[in-house]
Amino acid sequence: MTKQTQIRNVDLHFLATPDEAAQIRERMASIGMTSLGAYLRKMAIDGMIVQLDLSDVKDLVSLLRRCSNNLNQIARQANEIHSIYETDIEDLRRQYDTLWDSANKILSSLAKI
After folding, report:
1. Cβ atoms of 67 and 95 closer than 8 Å
2. I need a surface site. Which of 3, 8, 42, 71 has the fewest CB within 10 A?
3. Predicted confidence band at 3 (pLDDT cuts at 50, 70, 90)?
């Protein structure tokens, strides 16, 4: 028997909430499929689940926030006692902005997965 002529006689069954069923039907409709069985079979065989450990990214964001607070404190103190050059502060801000840009690119890339 070829793959196309095989008889599907194994029953696979699962329960879903009404919200889950609606989401399944919405996704099915979004790709133009009308057969629930074909869609579920295709997703079960070819679909993939991506589970990401984002703890490192969360740590990065936390560090960036702390760095931001520290930078603001340094800038305030430097402005009060005039012991740091304005160009140094601007350099720190540029470096910090570059850091945030990199972090945002990482987060955007992860969001697309």
Report:
1. no
2. 3
3. low
